[in-house]
Amino acid sequence: MVSDPFEAYARADAPLPTTNRLWPLYGAGMDNFGVDRKPIEVPMPEVGPDELLVRHDACGHCFSDIKVIRAGQDHPRIYRDMREDPVVLGHEISLTVVGVGEDLKDEYAVGDRFIVQADIFVDGIGYAYGYEIQGGLSEYTVIDQRVLNGDHGNYLIKVQPSTGYAEAALAEPWACVIAAYELRYRSMIRPKGTMWVIGTDRAKDTYSIGKGFDKASHPAKLILTNVPPAFDAWLREQAAELGIEVEDLTACPDPETVETDDSPASPAETTGSGAGVDDILILGADPDVIEDAAPNLASYGVMAIIDDKPMDRLVDLDVGRIHYNRWLFAGGTDTDIARAYTDVPARSTLRPGGAAWFVGAGGPMGRMHVQRAIESAEHPGTIVATDISNERLGDLADSFAADAQAKGIEFICLNPMDKDAYGTGMARFKETGFDDVIILAPVPPVIADAATCLGPRGVMNIFAGVARGKAAAIDVSGIYLEGHRVIGHSASTIENMRSMLFQAEAGTLSPNRSVAAIGSLEAAWDGLTAVQETKYPGKIVIYPHIKPLPLTAITDLQETLPTVHAKLRNGNEWTKEAEDELIRLMAL
Question: Is residue 453 part of a domain?
Fold first, then answer.
């Protein structure tokens, strides 16, 4: 009896080839991707006693891959000569074990399936999958102890046999999405950190700190600049009692000395102490002081602005570092500075029943954010999705409008290029403001404009990766007068990955709905080009172990693979059944 080709593929126990096909990246630019726009063949890697040989089953393309292609070995996650030792991209992957080293036979077996938390660290050094470690645009690779025994333990996460390959691979980008709504921020001055207090011409005579500057908890270092005399004296007296180091800074450090590279978590180092500042307290709002002091914030740093009157201009904030370094700008009107942290805590979850605006919602990540908002148990009451492509907006509406209606969500799609319709549709929100504004377009002027639409206690979450050093003009007065909060985040943790995979396997979130196009390993060139050109509204998934298949929108499979197309949901959504049929017909 002939076995089912899909079942044979899933068992992963067939004899292995002697060669391994992969896409090398030799340097910056698509001309350095592959050889003659094709993958190459290399010998099958040998497996050591404490290593695994794995098969890449599905690999999602990501715009982060494009950043590596554009930067080459200048990318901050690449540490080697790419011409001599090329990078193999692909960090959104699902894989199957096909070979087990002798020392691991009690822990792993052929056929075991996993996804990988891509941010792998060993002794504090990053060896990201698809960057320093060979990624998913290859048929096979070796998983070594960097992955199995890194700083956070084992970076492999077990996948159930019934889970689809694409939906498992897309747990990685989906984990980044859910991570954006699970951010946690400090609600007090950082214990044992560095605190800088700056007075301005608008400062009041006296202030207090009700929590975080006492015996129970206090910073290790205090920096003082132009602090009103009475508060200055109180701070010094408390510091002496608590053993806090005090430094006088009569003028703001030169902001031009601040690092602005794009390396991960790079803090400012400009305060004389040689480290970024954890908490900067501004007494009396002054745009110049805020702009000069802000670059000195450390990663995860907080600037608290205390005032009760608006400023006379907008403030240029480094929105790239809000995103990558998790800076938080808080504030309030009370002279008890601790209340700037506690009265309006930074909220990352969408306000249940509120109004949420997704800016740049038509792309792959935007669709995920919108889908999550609709499928969430505590969903917004109104969702506004904007994008400059009518085609993307139409596809978004086709995919999710019915789901939104079924949950009683008002779902509005608007194109800013259509001035009349956009102006009419946004008019009411200009008056009331949004509870949540999610930024999915990495364009500082767009971010600045969106910030003007925050309602009282509204939150703007900068999800799109704007480069460090890029500023947007923000109405910072709203932060301390209206309780606005501007937050941001990138990447995900292994806990986020586990959470996302659990939701996918439980059926509460469907990564398959993100799939827009598929192809074989040969299609990776066209796939990455399509990502650069934003050709598809959803994700592109490469299947390295199927026969040659050009990059194909799943809705176009009716012409080439009709039995696969027949198993799509509603003729336009990828399913586990469609994937099984694809492998049944096309497995190598």
Answer: no
Q: Is beta strand 410-414 parallel, antiparallel or unpaired with respect to 355-359? A: unpaired
Give the chain's residues under pLDDT 50.
Answer: 1, 252-274
Three-state DSSP class for residue 393: helix
Q: What is d(CA 470, CA 467) in angstroms, rounded to the nearest whole number?
A: 6
Summarize pLDDT for 358-377 with one digit per residue, the tens: 999 999 999 999 999 999 99
State the residue range of the domain holding 329. 194-342
Task: Give the angle 554-559-560 at the CA atoms, nearest 5°.
Answer: 80
Sequence-distant (6+) residues with CB within 8 A of 25 are 32, 33, 68, 69, 72, 82, 86, 87, 88, 89
Cα Rg of the chain (Å, integer): 26
Is residue 214 domain-shared with residue 284, that is, in the same domain? yes
Token couple for 426:
């946004």
CA distance 423 to 418: 8
Do 499 and 582 sit in the same domain of this protein?
yes
Residues 34 and 174 in one domain: yes
Of 410, 441, 472, which residue is a domain's last? 441
Asked if residue 136 and residue 37 are part of one domain, the reply reads yes
Contact 368, 514 (CB under 8 A): yes
Helix/strand/coil for 462:
strand
Q: How confident is the model at residue 49, as a pLDDT?
A: 98
Residue 425 and residue 419: Cα distance in Å, rounded?
10
Do 146 and 288 lie in one domain? The reply is no
- 185 assigned to some structural domain: no
Please write the tens of the pLDDT for every residue from 290-330.
999 999 999 999 999 999 999 999 999 999 999 989 999 99
User: What span, in angstroms and rounded, lies between the C-alpha atoms of 306 and 285?
Assistant: 7
Same domain for 311 and 399, yes or no, is no
312 in the same domain as 201: yes
Please report which residue ranges of 149-228 form alpha helices under DSSP H. Answer: 165-169, 171-179
End-of-domain residue from the set 398, 419, 441: 441
92-125 confidence digits (pLDDT tens): 999 999 999 999 999 999 999 999 999 999 999 9
Mark whether 9 and 122 lie in a shared domain: yes
Token digits for 311? 């400023």
